[in-house]
From TrEMBL:
InterPro entries recorded: PXL2A/B/C, Thioredoxin-like_sf
PANTHER family for the chain: PEROXIREDOXIN-LIKE 2C, PTHR28630
Residues annotated as transmembrane: none
Official protein name in the record: Peroxiredoxin like 2C
SUPFAM superfamilies reported in the protein's UniProt record: Thioredoxin-like (SSF52833)
Amino acid sequence: INLVTSAKLPVASGAALLTCPFCPIGFQHFLCYICKEYVEDLAKIPKSFLQEANVTLIVIGQSSYHHIEPFCRLTGYSHEIYVDPEREIYKRLGMKRGEEIASSGQSPHVKSNLLSGSLQSLWRAVTGPLFDFQGDPAQQGGILILGPGNNIHFIHRDRNRLDHKPINSVLQLVGVQHVNFTNRPSVIHV
């Protein structure tokens, strides 16, 4: 699998994916407003929470490496991020292409409605340095927990754009403490 960093450096045969006991990996399409908002919430996970659980969080997009840095600035994401321009990892893991009509429920990570989110995505495409879709718009992603080694502990393949797994449910599986993704202060019940 040929993963690439923002500096167009190859990641040695997925070695970065095998170094920690558990790696939740989010596969994202950079231009999709839903994925952008999901990654904005991934960005809110404190590095200290991940370090305490000895977990590495990696986002893998499916576009050119040119889109990594602007996407990270846009979302505030500072954890590891790579791209797989040929979508090899998507294919090997059986990630769907196209949208399956299925009720996915309301994601706690999607803040925009269809109209405003689509307009934001279109605006980013038109005003971006490279006018492209930043990957295959039909490619669905997912979440994977693996490691150490090649052991897969959990996999969720998105069936459509709204079928993202709630982040806290994945964090719970790897022993990372709960994160408040709302902008409201937490209430502590005594």
